[in-house]
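Exercise 7.
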Amino acid sequence: MSKTVTAVIGETPYLVTLTDGTHQWLGDEPLAAGGGSRGPTPHELVLSGLGACTAITLRMYANRKGWPLANVTVELQLNPDGAPATGGAEVRRHIRLQGELTAEQRERLLEVANACPVSKTLGGAIHTTTSLV
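Solution. The predicted structure, written as tokens, is:
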């Protein structure tokens, strides 16, 4: 079962404190948008979730297979060429794998990256139910 994430904003413009009951982190807007740039923007937080999930999934898979994956770097951009004319959004994900991997292992790791849980969530239909309490 997943934890509940709570976001709280006070009077400081755009500074949001986020918690899952165990960890605490910040979200904010850049100075140019009226924020204090004390944390990642909401879109950067979404990208960070995808990046973390991708890296963790690749590490778990390589460890389970006993493959010599030394390091994974995941770079992500949201709409790097501007918002698509057809609507929606484009996430560009570049993965750098380090280690003595075969071409077949690298190809399999690419498949695994595309199947990470957050990638599946973002690629599927997302329905948000909102209520006031």
